[in-house]
Fold this protein.
Amino acid sequence: MSENTIHNQPDPSEPGQDDSAASADVVRLDKYRQPRPDTPDADPAGAGVKPGEWEAELPDSDAPEAEGLTEGDPVDSPREAYPPSVAEWIEAKDKARLPVLPDWVKLPDQRKAVRKWAVRHYSTVAGYHAVRLPCIYTPKVLFYSPRGAWRWSAAVGRWVFDSEGKSLRLAAVAAEDAAEYLKLSRQRNDRVRLRGVLAAFAASVGLSAALTLYVMAPSWLLLLSVAALTTALGVVGAPADRPLIERAKVTFRKRKLSSDIVIRAHEVAGLTEKDQNIAFPRPIGRDGDGWRVVVDLPYGKTFKDALKAHGRLASGMDIAPTQLFMDPDETSNRRVSYWIADRDPLAVPSGKTPLLGATRVDFWKPFPWGVDERGNPVMATMLWLSLLVGAVPRQGKTFSARTIALAAALDPYVRLYVFDGKASPDWRKFTKVAHRIAFGIVPKNGFDPVVHLLTALRELKADVEDRYHRLSELPLHICPEGKLTPEISRDKKLNMPLTLFVVDEVQEYLTHPEHGKEILSLLVYLARVAPAVGVSVMTSTQKPDDKACPSELRDQHQARFALRVGAYQVSDVILGAGSYSEGLDASKLLKSHKGVGLLKGMSDDSGIVRTYLADGRDAERILTRAAALREAEGTLSGDAAGQAPAAEASATVLDDVAAVLGKGEAKVWSETIVDRLADLRPEAYGAWAELEPKPKAEALSAALKPYGVATEQISRRIDGEQFNKRGIKRADIANAITERNKKLGDG
């Protein structure tokens, strides 16, 4: 058969065959065969098909219909390297294959780092011992060498006189076994005779060598020999707990982990059955500064069971709980991966923040925040979320949050709001870059930081509402999906930059007697609604209880970061209900774990973060560079640029209240006035209108109090029923306006 034909009838080329009949039954396949990618004519003229592309065309009326073939149909099936399932399997196997050589051998930068470490380490060790040789090691040798000589001579004497067999001979005497005693005595005599000869010979050889060395050897060799002998005797005579040579480096307790230790740990933790034990799907091996162990629990046991037995497993392995880390396996619910650290990795400082070496940061991309328990980088992002940070005092809560704010400061197109409820020095340098900033809750020199916070919250709430409207109205070529993009956020004309609103020690503001409830309402709104338009809220507190930081605010934070707390209940409050059952318990962190916390919600994975450190000087350096960036880009604004906020609602509240009072209304309930104010100026009073009736009245009362306007009980009868509510008098408002205008005129 020809390579390019299919025969249903005899070959028409043979004599006696009818050409017309043959043409009906013989189909030429040359023009229907798909060119192979590896042939020179893989894309012949007029084919219109590139290698690897297959086109099916509709049947042509003139095309032959024999065998159901149509022009454009491929005859040869497409050739692939592997089927998709096999390719995925091979890719998975490639990932699981361990490298032949470690990275520090193959990669030039890592080889350089290891070389630098070796030079630095061994030069330090050599210098350490060289300094101590004349003043510490030499006196020790001279002091311990007589004791060493005595110990050595006593050991030789015990060996020569067969002291190790003395207990056996005494036992034979006690048992009155004469035959055994005589046998042991003869054996001892033979040993003593032989060992005495050997000892005498060795002593004579040693003495001869010493005399020869003394007479014939140069003085430097004699001194070297004496020093070597004295050193050897000093090492023998040194106490076991006080070695002759000190350690130049503290070595941590490290042991080789065996399968017997792992099995014992699971047995004492109750994770094994009578007829089932754990299995090891892969060998135990080193993994960084620790051991990697993968086990299959007995059938019926799960990762959660191992998580609950964390403390017992650590005890069974004879390590601290902070050295044992667990990870689930995607392939099986009973497979657990353990990483057992050589020492507590959480007590090791993570080092200085890389932001010190960064010229600028793109806040649209993840930035370095810290490292995990194994030293792997942990990247943070504040896009489309709000973050709650909680911890007991002096555990690094403020420094951890400040690192995120420093990253935001290095992006000149990020607008920063910073408010510190405890008025500490930690946030003071942010005055160089912050759009709005204030410290503490106590008014000073005519400036009220709480009112400034309230003004900023109202200002930002109006901005968020405006962003939603403007994003929905932008053309599709600018805003394809109605969402904020990097280009939109950096367009100064649109004025919708990424914004980070930071409130440290938020409980101080939330418990404010006058403005606390309105601040809470505005923060809840921003944490819930604002992230979708590029405004992120980060709050931190040391009192995450319902009174100081209510759940209605905590629940709006998508991401949580809990440093050390006092109890697992508090950890659950910060990280969210159910976190303890997932194995996330910040109360297990130790006091020495500064800046270490559990992160949840920022990504799909939850885990430990050892945040980078940026102390006061580091923060000042970064913020100085950030201020220069903003000046160069023309994005320095607000308080940092000396621009005062727009007029506050409280400054015009008298005029607004007067405007909503109807003709002939001498007394009006406060909640009624608030509803009217919200209709008049929703951007200023909309948050009040969302409150319950009583908080509404309290918010209005707090706003009018600086002007000397007090509320009082106003009684009204509605449908025959008497109601008493707090309200204001028209006369009081008029008097307050008159008094204010008089003061302004005098000024």
